[in-house]
Amino acid sequence: MSQYKDYQLVIVRHGESEWNKLNLFTGWRDCRLSEKGVEEAKAAGVTLKNDGFEFDVAHCSLLTRANQTLYLALDQMDAVWTPVKKHWRLNERHYGALQGANKIEAVEKFGEAQVKIWRRSYDVPPPPVETSSADFPAHDRRYKDVDPAELPKSESLKDVLARVMPYWENAVLPDLKAGKRVIIAAHGNSLRALLKYLEGVSDNDIIDVDLPTGIPKAYRLTADWKAADAKFLGDPAELERRINAVKAQTKKA
Ligand SMILES: O=C(O)[C@@H](CO)OP(=O)(O)O
């Protein structure tokens, strides 16, 4: 019997993307997984299978890298048939005018402290893009049914939490309440927002939380749907290595 039989929810950040590899701020730009990211996603599926996980439904963002990760992981579990619900509210945080910028060059230009505030503070958003910019999501047909007033020009983690929560309440929670076992494939910062809520992390402590690429985190939930227990799956040394790789993105080699 799996030691995780009471764990109803798994979250997984996508595997390494082409832009993670190039060390660029990505946000809502739609890059694909790198070759390494593909392997990370497959390995996540193998881990989930070996740990005895099965899912009744999946939730995913509208960005390619999360969809690839979900599909590749489910494929390893012989479960690509799993119903998938997709929504922009699970997208990565919109990185505003930083989207497409190199993270080291941003540190050289604005200083490490400012870049850390933009990357990890709870409530300071990066500078916004104009609505005329190609980075404003209303220009992308996948968001054509979304009221442009709801679409971001830049987001702090607090802004991300505010737009993730309605999706949690209206789409994910009903599945959990129906007894379904749920996987959410999404992004470093949309999942940090959800983790902050589920685990009750303070505004201050969330600054030091980084999510690794492609390593599933499993939750056993309380009666009021918060985290009773949370565990990253797989090899602890690999987990540490991947978290450190995210932290190192703004450090000169
Ligand atoms: O660029 C981004 O969109 C995110 C996730 O890859 O980066 P960071 O970890 O710097 O918030």
Automatic annotation (TrEMBL):
Marked site: Transition state stabilizer: H187
Keyword Isomerase: yes
Residues of the signal peptide: none
InterPro entries: His_Pase_superF_clade-1, His_PPase_superfam, PG/BPGM_mutase_AS, Phosphogly_mut1
Active site annotation, chain numbering: H14, E92
Coiled coil: none
Enzyme class: isomerase
Pathway it works in: Carbohydrate degradation; glycolysis; pyruvate from D-glyceraldehyde 3-phosphate: step 3/5
One Gene Ontology biological process: gluconeogenesis
Positions annotated to bind substrate: 13-20, 26-27, 65, 92-95, 103, 119-120, 188-189
Swiss-Prot/TrEMBL catalytic activity: (2R)-2-phosphoglycerate = (2R)-3-phosphoglycerate
This protein's UniProt keywords: Gluconeogenesis, Glycolysis, Isomerase
Annotated EC: 5.4.2.11
GO molecular function: phosphoglycerate mutase activity
Record-stated family: Belongs to the phosphoglycerate mutase family. BPG-dependent PGAM subfamily.
Name of the protein: 2,3-bisphosphoglycerate-dependent phosphoglycerate mutase
Species this protein is from: Rhizomicrobium palustre
